[in-house]
Design a protein that fits this description.
single chain, 90 residues, alpha+beta, GMP Synthetase, Chain A, domain 3, two-stranded antiparallel ribbon, 37% strand, elongated
Length: 90
């Protein structure tokens, strides 16, 4: 897509939540939302810019990772030895 863009400005606000207790090993964190506002200055038609923005959003790795379930795999080591992250028995 060859589309002339004179300038662009993006404002992104992410909202996060947390809960549970560190001491009780029930702590959790989550992302409760992300707001993206993009301002574009372009001599192109609204239809062409709209197509560009659609492709930019669909091709943005960060937006797609947040908007769609993304598997995350975590491994841990302590002093070079594999370690499971589990709550200790009390």
């Amino acid at each position: 897509m060859k589309i002339k863009v004179n300038s662009a400005r993006v404002d992104v606000t992410a909202r996060f939540g947390r809960g549970g207790s560190v001491l009780n090993h029930s702590v959790f964190a989550n992302c409760v939302g992300v707001d993206v506002h993009l301002q574009v200055d372009s001599p192109e038609s609204p239809e062409r810019v709209s197509g560009l923005l659609r492709n930019a959003e669909a091709g943005c790795y960060v937006m797609q990772a947040l908007a769609n379930p993304t598997p995350v795999t975590a491994t841990f080591e302590l002093n070079g030895v594999p370690l499971k992250a589990i709550a200790p028995e009390t």
